[in-house]
Amino acid sequence: MSPDSNITPNLEHLRKLQRSHLLSVPFETLDIARDEPIVLDRPSLYTKIVERKRGGFCYELNSLFGWLLDQLGYDVRLIEGRVRHEGGNFGPPFDHMALLINLDRSYVVDVGYGRFCRVPLPLSGDSRTGLEGTYEIVPADDTNHYFAMELAADEGWKPTYRFTTAARELSDFNEMCEYQQTAQDSPFTGRTLCTIATTTGRITLSNDSLTVTEKGHEQTTQIESKRERDRILNDRFGISF
């Protein structure tokens, strides 16, 4: 892929690229459910996501989107995060991958978290509000230089994950990528998940249910067969095997 000479690496174009990605490429773990190994090398990811019109999870989506931004002239780095799981505990280092983009100031961009902030989020702490909620970034740990990605909830701000701003290489995520695919306590094993943003909400297939969210209203229907699930994947997400 060659850079588009019509795209200037600025905040406006970054917002448009992020929005386009979120509306076009699903977050999905179908290869994990099918026992198809996910290997973190960019040619394989390009083939899967661009040529085969598939999605992926954080390591796949953010690394390939980060590569695109780099090709377009953005100052971008891979960063590692630790997701807050049920019970309030955070996962291990490299539990999650996101992107740090340096423009007039630094922004976190994340196209690999499913329901999340749809615009670049300033590292400065300014909040952003959209269909997926209100988010902000705050310092979390001065000793280890962690920041917290927080979501506004009824009970106040709730952290979704913690991260550092240190630059990482794609290979740094290999061990956790394999763990997420194979470990019994991984949130991605033993589950079928595919979700994509829409202009008015989100469509999510989770195991045997389909949830369509429109302007905050959810409607869930049960999926009765594999044939029906395959049809939904094709019709709703453009995925076929």
TrEMBL record:
GO MF assignments: acetyltransferase activity
Matching Pfam families: Acetyltransf_2
Stored InterPro entries: Arylamine_N-AcTrfase, Arylamine_NAT_domain_sf, Papain-like_cys_pep_sf
Keyword Metal-binding appears in the UniProt entry: no
SUPFAM superfamilies noted in UniProt: Cysteine proteinases
Keywords: Plasmid
Entry keyword Nucleotide-binding: no
Family statement: Belongs to the arylamine N-acetyltransferase family.
Protein name as it appears in the record: Arylamine N-acetyltransferase
